[in-house]
Amino acid sequence: MKTCSLFIKTLLLYLMIFSLYSCKKSDNRPDYPAGSQENINSWILDSMKVYYYWNAGLPGNPVLNTDPSSFFKSIKNSADRFSALVNPDLPESYPPSLVHTLGFDWITLQTSDGQVKTMISLVVPGSRAAGKGLVRGDIIQTINGTVPTAANIASLTNNSILKQSTDLELVGKTGIIQVQRLINSEDPVYTYHVFQSGGKTYGYLFLNSFENTALSQLKRAFAYFKQEQVQELILDMRYNPGGSVPVAAALAVMIAQNTTEAATFVEYRGNQKAGVRKSSFGAELSKLPSGLNIGFAGFSGYRLNLNKIYVLTGNHTASAAELLINSLRPYITVVHSGQQTLGKDMAGFVIKDYRNPQIVPKWEIYPMIFKLYNAAGRGDYSNGLTPDQITDELTVLPLKPFGDLSDPLIQSCLQKTNMVAGQNRVESTLERPRVIFDSRVPVDLKTGLTISRPY
């Protein structure tokens, strides 16, 4: 079955350009009936042969008469953790997360004395959960009337997601708190403020994603930091799963003094057909929606005259957040504290059947297509970015509010103000409880640097 001829314009993240390709069968397979497993899997295979980063390793003649989800898994490269095949009629192909359903996350821990505790790790500001009084660090006594344990926390989480509602009893709080589905959209900038320490003025900003909606608050925060004459900046991205590359570029321009409009922000390296392309700060900013793009000069007007930046990360920090850290390094000293990041050093875009009428409706491929590198040609962080100061927020319980000066990650910055990035790696000796369950794990697999296909 022939698929449509494709002319790809601005393929990667609004910038990459592919040549003219004809995505068609590479063998003599018959035209299978529409909707059949062979038809769907042929389309998957043909698409992956063109765009997939590891396309050279795809099987030549795989078995096509099998479930598409199983077929997709069978042809993925063993090094590929993030490519996905999604169908809205099959919820198991794109499992929902607790935070995107109810507006908060929880973790289950086992402390050194053997106690098992389930604790709120994040609450979305403005969500119903926040409105009901849930705060980070709350310890949960019961979930829907059941005491959470290592054995049942996964099922309690799944049931809460399916019901889109949960009843919680919390230590130190009276009554049952019922939390229903999150309605309000999330503002990626959770909080920002200024404080004094060691004779210096610090700015602190918690950023939970790189969505376009973050830009107005980022500008407001940096205007406030500039007004307060901030000398040191702490950027907290410990749970940030990524988002828009142009938004990351805009934030980089606001942070780093040495960037120019023509300087390289990111380099994309694809398969033999995609090749290698460098994308400048100006080129990325030009892809912002017209109402949000104030240009390089506009974003650079928010700069704070910094010579270094402190960045806080965790195991869930991924994608555009990792890209920002790596892409800043050629232009400003980055002092990285926290935990090793997730290691999503790749980008892609959604592949659908754009024909009218569709022959393969509903199925969507989210393949990994490009490896990401900075202006110095450094990348390959699929195992994650390793901090200069390895510190874990779980060493001080209950978890502190974001921006609290007693938080271990913030303390690592204040205690190591003279640390040289990448040279004085220090690991905290405080004891860390064992994580039994983390409701945020599904978010790690659902996020990435993806764009809509530009036709």
Automatic annotation (TrEMBL):
Domain of life: Bacteria
Keyword Signal: no
UniProt keyword list: Hydrolase, Protease
Matching InterPro entries: ClpP/crotonase-like_dom_sf, PDZ_sf, Pept_S41_N, Tail-specific_protease
UniProt cross-references to Pfam families, sorted A to Z: Pept_S41_N, Peptidase_S41
Alphabetized CDD domains for the sequence: Peptidase_S41_CPP_like
GO biological process: proteolysis; signal transduction
GO CC, alphabetical: outer membrane-bounded periplasmic space
Residues of the Peptidase S41 N-terminal domain: 39-83
Tail specific protease domain sequence ranges: 202-388
Molecular function per GO: endopeptidase activity; serine-type peptidase activity
Leader sequence segment: none
Protein name: C-terminal processing protease CtpA/Prc
Organism encoding this protein: Pedobacter cryoconitis
